[in-house]
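Suppose a colleague, Dr. K., hands you the sequence of a protein chain of 62 amino acids and asks what its three-dimensional shape might be. Before reaching for any lab equipment, you can write down a predicted structure in token form. Begin with the sequence itself:
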Amino acid sequence: MESDPKIRLSLEQEFNLKAFEEQIKDINLEQAKVLLTELYRQLSWREAYFKYFIKQIDFLPE
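The predicted structure, expressed as tokens, is then:
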């Protein structure tokens, strides 16, 4: 999902992505489902935190 060419991953993020790819290359379908569910949960929490903090600085209307 590379939507904006001005926004790039840091070297640390690139390294972590490659390490993650290596860790998951042999997982089965059931493990993948669990992993994706956990990833979605964490992304949802992250989004909620971002919205909360942005509201705290009055960027978003109530």
